[in-house]
User: Fold this.
Amino acid sequence: MKKIKNLQSMSFRARVSVRGISFFLLGLKTRFLARHFVTALEMTLIAILFSGCFDLDNSLFNNDTLTAYNLRTTVIPESLRTQVVLNSQEKKIYGYFVKSSNINEKNVVLYNHGNRDHLQFYWDRVELFYKMGFNVFIYDYQGYGMSEGEPTEEAIYSDANVAYYYLQSKGFHDTLITVYGFSLGGAPATNLAAKTFTPRRLILESTFASASALTQSGTLLDLPGTFVMKGEYTTAEKIKRITSPVLILHGVDDKFIDMEKNGKVIYNNANEPKTFIAVPGADHSEVPWKMGEANYISTIKNFILN
Assistant:
């Protein structure tokens, strides 16, 4: 069972009412009878509930640290990637700039990854953009991979801004920068496009609408609505301020972030031009693969260029 590792976006600090605890424990009992076992995550939640506090920050920022990155070269030659060290809130954050194999390509994708591990875990995503022919920049939030510091909502917004300014320093005009956010990465991606600059395109994949939307959907943990989250992550509100064309992709079978209560809400709040793609059979991390690599590449490439 890898529920904790795969929990891309479910996290917050919360206070639980007595009534909320009762309903939650009843739900755990029902699922136990159905499955004949209690997962490690559920056992952890029970212990936390009885201790009087509920802190899932460690699940939201499910980060691993590294002393060095080990990136495969089967698709992207080592000669076309450059490690970059930036400064965010007086902390060093690390990223990689991948140069397109087409020396005349001017577009770049700024990729904001999910809550798991570090950028090395998302290298297959970078390879997809490379196959599209684009330049790519991926970075690790504070506390992820080799990046210093600790991840917080404010920190990841700062990190995204710093990543944008790096691309600007390399001569990429705003009209050439597409911002992509996957899962947790949808929050800094949307914040960046709403407050810092107007990107060429904004693409959100499997993104949650807000902190409260997570507690209300609670698709994985059946969380009661009495929880109070530490962060706000008001992506569905910020999207209203964005004038760039928006593409939203969401798996119909997403068990972590419910499509109707998150992806659809963000889409409904977005300005035209906008596109929504519901991917049948796709769970939280499966959108590109359930679409099919060729179809995914064609869809994203056409949206960025046309």
User: Anything to note?
Assistant: Residues 78-210+230-305 form a domain with the Rossmann fold fold (CATH 3.40.50.1820). Confidence is low (pLDDT under 50) at residues 1-58, 219-227. Residues 63 and 191 are 21 Å apart (CA to CA).
